[in-house]
Specification:
The chain has 3 domains: about 375 residues, 3-Layer(aba) Sandwich (Alkaline Phosphatase, subunit A), CATH 3.40.720.10; about 80 residues, Diphtheria Toxin Repressor, domain 2, CATH 1.10.60.40; about 70 residues, 2-Layer Sandwich (Copper Amine Oxidase, Chain A, domain 1), CATH 3.30.457.10. The protein contains 21 helices and 22 strands. The strands form 5 sheets. Strands 5-6-4-3-7-1-8-13-2-14 form a 10-stranded mixed sheet, sandwiched between helices. Strands 16-17-18-19-20 form a 5-stranded antiparallel sheet, with helices on one face.
């Protein structure tokens, strides 16, 4: 397909078909555009009314506002409402998947308009746009305010049919050659926090990364390979954040762009504001406001760079809605059209912390509940039931208790503590004269658009990086066995050892660095074609 025709497909208005927007065949082209760098920003689980609420709370427009260009359909391969793992996988790989599956195909695709999964392709790893960009010689990076092995960042850097398997996901992340990794989750990299006991922090340093743990070290780093871990688990909500201990999402975004943009071949960067989703699950409006506004600051950093650079596209889009947040609830049924703005915003303005941050202000026996709620939330009319609920709140669940309390006083409604299935807003920026994704599109079209604009073929990248090891080695007459979390392949006098979830091979005892990681999905092993060629050549 010519670039001219592709532009027509991408810039079309809303389509009525089930798969509106670009298709795989239309976007997977080797012809690059004028876009050299791509920045994808994801405010995970951002409810539909969140930007409106954040705008009123801020008292000014958001940086996102000028970038709105369409809507994105969010369903997964077999469900109307998506989990973050398949939603992130769709953005990363151009394939819809199943709840909990990261960077792999589902077992089945049953939603309307979806093609059936070919027998034998169930749970097969599929290449991400980050991996495609890396094979082009571009620098790559991921940023997350959650643990970096959480579903969304993992979908761009690893492959496994269980988002909870942090050992496998983080191992692949460490060995997948990503240039910049910033976020939380250091406890899952240390030997003490892993079932396999491996010290991945030592591995990160051995691979040449500058491993930093403070904002000061982050800013001081001059390395082209940067790995920053600023919390044992997830980072704090921005409203609760200690700037001496943790950088903001905007600060991490700026540093990543500074590092990655030094590559003359260009770069791909994924930035996730992870805890918007967590606040929505808790029905905590202060967590929503905290991290939507922090995310919007990161959008400004990305857009400012893109405008100055002239070769950078920026996409911002949430993976799904969460919580069913509404400005107005059942109490405003008869007053909604006369209620002043202050009725909704004033109670929120009095809060100084999110529900999560508030937990640390209560004393051990929680005898200071009324004092804390008055000082940090401006709430002076707690009921006996509310006081008791705060007193009995489990550790780590305070936001689930106080979030609804401030919501009620601000007349903020919620329909669920889970995800919702509506279309989400697509925000894009491209340099003048370049091709902008518009209209109503599928979440998979995000990956296809990125691949198209950067000039690589996702399908070909998958074929290059993820070959069924048993089939491929058998085809050349080799013998394959599994021994202690690694694949051992022999052909005549040649022996190839392929440890799972790493890009390291031992060929007749000599170390060889592969261009992708070896993936064991619990049933089958997939290797880069390079590994097969290595053995076949001898």
């Amino acid at each position: 397909m010519t670039r001219k025709l592709l532009v027509g497909v991408l810039a079309g208005s809303m389509l009525a078909s089930l798969s509106a927007g670009v298709t795989a065949e239309e976007t997977e082209t080797s012809e690059s555009s004028g876009i050299k760098n791509m920045i994808l920003l994801i405010p995970d689980g951002m409810p539909h009314d969140a930007t409106t609420l954040a705008r009123w709370y801020k008292g000014a427009s958001l940086n996102l506002d000028s970038m709105a260009s369409g809507l994105v359909r969010t369903y997964s391969a077999d469900a109307a409402i998506a989990d973050s793992a398949p939603a992130g996988t769709a953005f990363a790989t151009g394939h819809k998947s199943h709840t909990g599956y990261v960077g792999v195909l589902p077992d089945k695709a049953t939603m309307p308009g979806q093609q059936a999964i070919a027998p034998g392709d169930e749970r097969r790893p599929v290449a991400s746009v980050l991996e495609g960009a890396k094979l082009q010689g571009k620098s790559t990076g991921i940023i997350s305010t959650s643990e970096i092995m959480h579903a969304t960042p993992a979908a761009f850097t690893s492959h496994y049919p269980a988002r909870s398997n942090y050992d496998a996901l983080s191992m692949q992340q460490v060995y997948n050659g990503v240039d910049v990794v910033l976020g939380g989750g250091s406890s899952f990299l240390s030997g003490e926090g892993r079932k396999d006991g491996q010290n991945l922090i030592a591995s990160i340093k051995a691979l040449g990364y500058d491993y930093v743990t403070t904002p000061q070290q982050l800013q001081a780093s001059e390395s082209g390979k940067l790995w920053g871990m600023f919390s044992p688990t997830a980072l704090s909500y921005n409203m609760d954040r200690n700037p001496e201990e943790q950088p903001s999402l905007a600060e991490m975004t700026k540093k990543a762009i500074d590092v990655l943009s030094a590559d003359e071949d260009g770069f791909f960067l994924m930035v996730e504001g992870s805890k918007v989703d967590w606040a929505a699950h808790a029905n905590d409006p202060m967590g929503i406001l905290s991290d939507v506004l922090a995310f919007d600051d990161a959008v400004k950093v990305a857009k400012d760079f893109a405008e100055a650079n002239g070769e950078t596209a920026v996409i911002a889009v949430t993976d799904h809605h969460n919580g069913g947040l509404t400005i107005g609830n059942r109490e405003t049924t008869k007053t909604y059209d006369t209620d002043p703005l202050s009725k909704f915003i004033a109670p929120l303005k009095r809060a100084k912390l999110t529900g999560e941050g508030l937990a640390a202000k209560f004393n051990e026996n929680r005898t200071n509940i009324q004092q804390v709620m008055r000082e940090y939330y401006g709430i002076t009319d707690l009921t006996k039931e509310e006081i008791q609920a705060i007193r009995e709140a489990e550790l780590g669940r305070m936001n689930y208790v106080v979030g609804p309390m401030i919501s009620n006083r601000a007349y903020i409604g919620w329909t669920t503590g889970g995800h919702t299935g509506g279309d989400v807003v697509l925000y894009t920026y491209v340099p003048e004269g370049q091709h902008r994704l518009m209209g109503v599109v599928e979440n998979t079209d995000i990956a296809k658009y990125i691949a198209s604009e950067l000039g690589f073929d996702l399908g070909a990248t998958t074929q290059r990086l993820f070959v069924d090891a048993k089939q491929a080695f058998a085809a050349i007459g080799a013998t394959v066995s599994t021994e202690a979390d690694q694949l051992v392949v022999t052909l005549g006098n040649n022996k190839l050892v392929l440890p799972f979830h790493k890009n390291v091979a031992l060929h007749n005892g000599n170390k060889v660095m592969l261009e992708g990681v070896v993936v064991f999905n619990g049933e089958r092993t997939y290797v880069p074609q390079q590994a097969v060629d290595l053995l076949k050549a001898n």
